[in-house]
Amino acid sequence: MAAKVYQPDQELETKVKKATERISENMHIVANEPSLAFYRLQEHVRKALPPMVEKRVEVLALQQQLLGRCYDVEYAVSAIKTMHGAGKSFENTLEFIKNAIFFKQQLKYEEQRRHKKDGNRDSVYKRLSAHIATLDHLPDEISDVVRETANRVESMMNHARYSTEVQKPN
C-alpha cells in the first residue's frame, strides 16, 4: 500500500476559515459587550473613587485651615495699622500721667507744708494722751473714752482751722 499523501480539501479549509472567523467575531462581540464595558467601568470607579474622595476631603480641610489663617493674618495686619494710628492716644495718655504725677507732687508738698505748720503747734491729743497714761486708777473703758474724745476734739479743731484757712484767701 502506498502512502497517502495529504491533499488539501478546499471545501474543508473554507469551512474552517469561516468557523474561525465566526468564533473570532463572537469573541470580539463578547469582549466589547456593553454590560462587560459597564462592569469594567464600575471596577475602575470602585478602585479609583475612594482615594479621590479622601484627597477631596483633605483639600477641603486644608482650604478651611487656610481661610482661618488668612483671617488671622488680616486681623493682625488691621491691628498693626490701628496701633500706628494709636500713637496720638499714647502721647495723650503719657501727658496725663505726667500731669497726674506733677499734681500728686504738689499735693504732697502742700500736705507736708501744712503738717509742718500744724506740727509747730502742740496737738491737743498729744497733750491729753500724755496725761491719760498717768490715770491708771481709772478703768480701761474710761481711758479709752478719754482718748476717743481727745481725738474727736483735735479733728474738729483741725477742720475748723482748715476751713478758716480756705476762707482767708477769698
TrEMBL record:
Its main location: membrane. It comes from the Eukaryota. It is found in: Lysosome membrane. Keywords: Lysosome, Membrane. It holds the Pfam family BORCS8. GO terms for cellular component: BORC complex; lysosomal membrane. This is Protein MEF2BNB like protein. It comes from Habropoda laboriosa. The lineage of its organism: Eukaryota, Metazoa, Ecdysozoa, Arthropoda, Hexapoda.
